Every structure is written in C-alpha cells, then in structure tokens.
Batch of 2 targets.
Target 1
Amino acid sequence: MASTLAHLVNHQVRLAARPSGLPVAGDWQFTEEPVAEPAEGGVLVKTLALSLDPAMRGWMNEGKSYIAPVGIGEVMRAGGVGVVVASKAPGFAAGDHVSGTLGVQEYCLVPAEQLRRSGLAKIDLRLGTVTQWLNVLGMPGMTGYFGLMDVGQPKAGETVVISGAAGAVGQTVGQIAKLRGCRVVGIAGGQAKCDWVVQELGFDACIDYKGGSVKDGLKQHCPNGIDIYFDNVGGEILDTVLTRINRKARIIICGAISQYNNTTPVQGPKNYLSLLVNRARMEGIVVFDYADRYHLAIAEMAGHLQAGRMKSKEDVVTGGVAAFPGTLGKLFTGENFGKLVLQVAEA
Amino acid sequence: MASTLAHLVNHQVRLAARPSGLPVAGDWQFTEEPVAEPAEGGVLVKTLALSLDPAMRGWMNEGKSYIAPVGIGEVMRAGGVGVVVASKAPGFAAGDHVSGTLGVQEYCLVPAEQLRRSGLAKIDLRLGTVTQWLNVLGMPGMTGYFGLMDVGQPKAGETVVISGAAGAVGQTVGQIAKLRGCRVVGIAGGQAKCDWVVQELGFDACIDYKGGSVKDGLKQHCPNGIDIYFDNVGGEILDTVLTRINRKARIIICGAISQYNNTTPVQGPKNYLSLLVNRARMEGIVVFDYADRYHLAIAEMAGHLQAGRMKSKEDVVTGGVAAFPGTLGKLFTGENFGKLVLQVAEA
C-alpha cells in the first residue's frame, strides 16, 4: 500500500490572511504535500467533492464563534464527501464513501484523535448521490430540517417564508414545509431561481428581491401574515419580514449572508420590537447540536428523494481545489444556483 | 344616589395631539364633565391612583400595535386602582376596591359593554396596598412574573440580568429570580437605585449605566455569562448584553424605553447574530396574554410580600390628574425611583 500512495501529491488551499470584506486572492495560499499512510486508528480519505457554504466566511474571522476560526496557515475548513483510500481505523475500509470535515485539499489524513471531531461517517450512495450528500442529505439539509422542525415547529396551514430560497438550506426548508402542509413563500435573487422553486420544488410563490419590492411581494403572497420565517440573509429583508409577522411567529436565525462581508457593523433588525407586539420569537440554530438525530432526518429525506417527493439541486463547479477561491465568491454575489459544490475528483 | 353624584365634577386628561419624540404640554387637553350614574350593568369608579408606564408612550402613536392607539380627543388610557361609587353590575358594590383601565380621570364610568375590556376586577387590600396593587400585584408585577417564568424559564444557579432593575417590572423580576435560586444582576441609572436593589431587594449586584461601563460591569458581575436577560430598555445596553450571553440564553423583550421617544428609526440590536452563535432566543411578551393566570401570580407574590420575602417600591406623585403630563416625563428621564404612581384621591 505504501508504494501506491508514495507517488500521490496532496494539493491544498490554506488561509494566508484574514479577509476584510470579500475574500481576495491574497487571502489564500496554495501548497502541496506528499500523501502519507494513516497511523494506527487513522484514515486516509480522497476528496471527491467539497461543500461551499456561507458559514465559511465566518470561520475566516478571528474571534469567538460557535466554532474556532481557521488558523492562519491552516488548510481551509470544508465539509466534503470522499472515498477511503487506506484505513487503520475500525469501521472504515478502503472503498467506503464518507462525509465529514475534509478541508480544501485533495487528500485528508484523519488521525485517530481527530476522527470524532472531523465527523467522519460512512455514507450510503444508494440513498443519494455524492452531491446530494452535501446538500439535502448533508449539513445544509440537516440545518434546514432541524431549524424548521425544532425551532419553527410548523403546523399545517401556517405560512412559512424562506430567504435564500433556492440555496442549499432554503430548498430543504421549503420542501419539508410543503410536505407538512404549510403555505410556502420563498425569497430569492432573480426570476430563474424564483421560477425554479415554484415550478420544480412546489413553493406556493417566490419573491424576486432583485426585481421588485419584497414588501409588496409579502403583502401579495402572505395574505394571512407570516407564522415562520427562516432567515438566511439578515439585513433589509429581515426587517421587512418583521413588519408582517403574526402573533406567536417564529423567526429562525440560520445566517445573515447579506452581512458577512460587511466592513461596517452588522445592521441590526430595527423592527425587532415587532417581536414584542406579536409575542414572537427569534432564535438561532447551529446544526451540530442535532448530530445525534441526523440519521432520522437523512432517513426521512432520502425516502422523499427516492419517492420523488423532494428534489435537490446542486451547482457543481469543476476545476479541483485550485478553483476554490473563485468559486467561493459566487456565494456572496448570489451567482450560484442551488447548493454550491466544488468537484475535486470523479466519484 | 343621583343627588350625591350631581355635584361631582370629573377632571380628565385627553390626548390632544400625537407627540413627536417626548410628549409636550400641547399634546394634552384638560376637560371636565359632570359625573353620571351608571346605567344597567355599569359601574362608576372613583380613581384613587393611576399607574404611569413606559408603554403609555406607545399607545400615543398611530398604527398597529398589541393594543389600539388612544384616539385624538380621547381620555388618555391608564390602569388604576379605584373605589366603586355606584354599581348596577352584578359582582360590584359601592365601596369595593377595584383595579382596571380607568383612564387619566377622576371618575370612570364603565358601561356594561366595556366591563370586560376595562379588565375591572375587585382587589383585596388585605393582600397589598393601593400602590402595591399597581406595582408588584398589578400589571408590572404580572409582566415581570410571567415574562421571567414563562419565557425565561429560570433554573437555580443561572445568571439573570435585568435592565430597568429599579423600575416596576425590574423589581419583580429580580426578586422572583432570587427566590428561584438565580444569580441576579441589575442595570439601573444612578448609584442610589443600584444600592437599593442590592441592599433592599437582595440582588447580587447592580451596574450603574450612568456612572460606568455596562460591559465592564457585566464582565465583573457575570463571571459565568448570562443565561436570561430581561430587557426593558433596548438600545446600547441590549447590544452589550448580547456579547455576553450563554448558549441557549433567553432574552425577554419587554420594552425598549431608550427608543420610545426616538424621532429617528429604532436602533436594532446589531449583535443579534449572537443568537445564532449561542443558539439563543429573543422573545417578546405582552402581559394580557396571561390574564387567566394573574390570580396565581398575585397569590404567590402577596404571600412573599406578607412574609417579607419581597419588597415593593413605589414613587408616588401627588397633584391629581393635572399633574399627569409632567409626571409621565419622569419615566423617560429615569427620574422616578420605583414604580411611578400618580395619586388622584385619598384611599
């Protein structure tokens, strides 16, 4: 086995500097290393595809958050799907497909003591494709599912509004809410995305925030007000939604992509007193808290996918890890259409 | 009876104009009316004392809120305690003490069809004094009690921070939290108020926001972070607290007195993404939702008062309804010390 690996080179993308605003080329460093055998208890994984997420922008900042920042000079953190090349860990064998925190690199050597922290877990490609395992069956899907179900607690007939509706989390939230009997209204950028979530995913309506007034759209499409708002964007859209929430509404704070590259302070929701008037609740979620129940959500959603009750759209970019910096930028301009995935190797 | 009432004059304060910023003299109109007998099913109440509350500022604004605005030309809305002068309603007799929405006037004629809406209810002065019935046993007490217990859900050992700590709501929240075994840290304006909540009410500490840094005070007095924040003020203090909350923290939005007289937009909490990082919750409360359980809170707190486990401080201003406009202003400068009460007649 050692001879098989000896000729392999691991290309990596490391964080070179903490960005101010949008990340630029100089914030990244490209390195290469020889690929090494795993030691006792470790696993060597070949990366097939990486998940590109808005949360990555937060990991690049210094300071306390729900997870430690990526250190300067470290391989950029990323979730991904790969295939085990060599294993000295119980439960993993060469050829197994896995998901976990692989990092922006072609090979990920996970030592025994980091197995747990990497979240490395075997996945079953009969339940979904590699890219679906990064989307509906992966972290975005888990985020959407548990955010909606646990914090939102949707009831049939309620109105659910979702920003970033065509994004990775948004598509899960909207489809699960429809399956629960809710009225679902998305907010997305551009007519193509709006058409897709309505025509393909079955949302009741979708408001193009780039092409018109969100306020007017909510007025038109939420005649009975808003019971649940799943927020991925923050900023003006959050403020507008707050003017139309119902009594006892639930607002799930999943992200605030409109604010992540700010060089000025975050814009706080100036209409937050609507929470008081409406006895409403705004609550943050972090997906890792639900790790012990991921398998339940995966089982349900894999069933929906296979039965055609749910769809999953990924925007797959090729070019390997070298394409990472340029591809990440698409998230913040809204250029991606569906869950943004970087393909690193053929499955 | 008609002859007894015929010579009585009812002095009233009416809303003449919607204020911009702090209410001014021209926003009020003084009127007088003869006092009339109640018709069948109605009650005539003589006002003894009125509750002056920050929420009154909101009632003076146009627009949808949790309660309709006071109309121009209408008697200003106010909760109060009074004594029944004449009754043609079952359950009320002359001499009964009552609380309810009496308005800023010396006599309140409540017709049958408004009995329910006025919340008129008999009170027992053996459980508390007239002013205590406007404080710990009244709306502020109910607000503090149910906001803390239902939304906050305090557990022994948790740290509870309260802004407006010496105010009507704050005193209840802090004392109930202490009785539940929490560490209680107040925020109030001025050393005298801070000393009082610590020395008289038994708070563990109190931060004088006028005399020093709230940030430093929280760092010093909340070594284990903040589990519950009961917010009466909004603005900068809310933002500062958000930087120090614990995982799964609960923030009760009861009011935002720092923002009520703004002529610029409300300042939204720019650190609201701390809710995400900490999986925390911000929730608004309106006391009326708990009306069917007021009696439980009253029973508990009257017991605490009588056993000396709880104290109640009112800032009683004399001068009758004519003194209303000037007295209301004290709330917004923080001049009042304890629950602000306007005495209208001797008990």
Target 2
Amino acid sequence: MGKGEQTRDAILDHAMRLASKVGLAGLSIGRLAADLEMSKSGLFAHFQSKETLQVQVLDRAGALFAATVVRPALAAPRGERRLRALFERWLDWTKTAGLPGGCLFVTAAVELDDRPGPVRDRLVALQKEWLDVIARVARTGIPEGHFAGNLDPDQLAHDLYAVMLGYHHAARLLRDPRAADRARAGFESLLTATRARRSA
Amino acid sequence: MGKGEQTRDAILDHAMRLASKVGLAGLSIGRLAADLEMSKSGLFAHFQSKETLQVQVLDRAGALFAATVVRPALAAPRGERRLRALFERWLDWTKTAGLPGGCLFVTAAVELDDRPGPVRDRLVALQKEWLDVIARVARTGIPEGHFAGNLDPDQLAHDLYAVMLGYHHAARLLRDPRAADRARAGFESLLTATRARRSA
C-alpha cells in the first residue's frame, strides 16, 4: 500500500469515527483538515468533494462491518447458530469497531432519508446488501431443520433490523442499561414465533 | 385563545412540520421568520431561544401524538384490542397528523442522542411516557386473559418501539412498499411469541 493510500485510509478512518458522532452532514473538509493537521487542498486532492468523501466513508464502514460482523459469523455452522453469531456480532459491532457515536448507518439512515442523491443511493445499496446477507443466513436454517419451510427470510431480516434499531434507541437515547438484554429477548421472541408457526 | 397564543401555535405547527423533514437542529429562527413572513424579533418574543423553541416543538408533537394515537386507542376495549388500536394508530400517525418528513421523534432521537441538555431531556421524558403507556395497555390484557401472567409489559413496549423504528427505516430510507405489512407481521410475531410462551 502506497503512502497516498495510507493517508487516504487514515482520513477515512477518522472521518468514519467522527461521522458516528456528528453524522455524515457534519463531515466538513475544513473540520477534518484541522483534526488531522492537513491542508484543505491536501484533503481535496484525495476526495474532490464532500459528497465523494461521504460515499467513501460509507464504503469504509461497510468494509469494516463485513470484517467485524459478517465474515467471522459465516464461520459458524449453517442455520440457527450462524444467525445467532451474526446477531451477537452485530449487537457489539460499534464497540468492536471503535465507533464512539454508535452505528453510523443508523445515524445516516435518518439523516439521508429525505435527501436524494449518490450518498443516499450508496447507503440504500449497503443496507439492502446487509438485509440480503441476513435473509441468506436465515435460509440456511431451513434445510438444516432449524427453521420451518414456510419461514419468510426477508421478513426475518426486516424484523432483526428492527430489533437492532430498538437496541440503538434504548442504548443511545434512553441510556437503558438493559438495552442489550432487551434486544436479545426481542430476537428470541422472533425465533419463538417462527417455531410456534411451524408447530401450529 | 388570545391572538398571541394563536400566533404561537401557528409557529409551532409550522416548526413541527419543518422539523419532521430537517430535524430539530434545522429549526432556525431566521428560516421560520422567512417562512412565516414574520420578523426575527417577533419570533424571539415568543421563544427567546432556539432551545426553548425546540422543547416546545417536542411538546406540541407530544400533544398531537396523544390526541391522534393515544386517546382514540384508549376508547377500544381493554387488552389485546386496545393494544392493536394503539399499534395501528401509531403506524399511521405521521399521515394522520400531516408530518411530511415522517416521525419527528425518530429523527430527534438520532439527532440528540449525543447532545446532552434540556431538549434531549424533554425528548427522553416523552419517549419514556410513551413506553409506559404501551406497557400499561399491554398489562390490561393479563386480567382479560389475552396475555399470560408472565408477560413482561416493559419488554413488549420496547419490542413494539423497535417494530416501529423498523417500519420508519423501511418506509423512509428503503422506500419499501411493503413496510407497513412488514411492521404488522413483526407485531403479530411478538403476540405469537407471547402466546407460545404461555402454552409452553
């Protein structure tokens, strides 16, 4: 990796951590230049525009999420255990990844929902990819006999996303010390409902 | 209601609708003055500071939520039907209340989670009140025999909040046309899990 790339990655890492606190809109080239003791023109040489920077921060966070959550969880056995591994790593990911302001994607989702453009498009693409990963992992539980054949994996992916948004809300806004336990109980309810529908 | 109060309410209604799109941080006295063709000093006479305005916008939204969701739902029979009424009205509330940018509380939660102060405190108080209302309504289903005696009403309130955050994410960021159906299916899963635990 050349020096240019190293600098670019260092900028993106800093920007990603900052964005987890202040949102993507809070990423100004001026602020980053001051934080990193670089010139604004030096930063512009790497990113050309704030929008390019924002898209690359999202991509960087996506790569970190894949490395921290997805790839290790895929090492677990197919089916329910893999889904549980995915869920537990997801629950901890902002700590593991060292994001001080919580999940960047949750913040960005609310920031960007009314702002059409390439940054929003990139976020939507990343979120859909992630929902697809969850659905695919859930689907591996059907041939294993962990989940019923009538399981709707896309619904389960949506529901798990909701559980995680509830966790973020309880932990970060309400400072609820039981936020993680609440999220785990929500996850178990979803699995219980899946089993109840099978036996019904 | 005096003319002063009427003006104040008209400002708050406009500010609330604007905040549903741009967030509470986007509420500048200057922007409101321009939108409403008032002088900045006229607006300051009503609100003194941006922070006071933000707190009052939250209170106004809380009052609207109570009128649109809570009070009509409380007219439904105790227990499961009342909980369903609460859920359905909640799902539709931004449409019923005419909030063009979706739920103001969801946006504010992400905006304010890292910003200590009176606005955040007011939001947290309103959110806890609302979770308490859900838990109390869920609890009325126990003596009615709709829910098991071992139901944890606070967990159910947390879980329903998560379902609604998932709805907001799917509807507003992902523009998923099935967002409301997904939320309803998530709600049914929670009730199914409650029943499965009772019969287990």
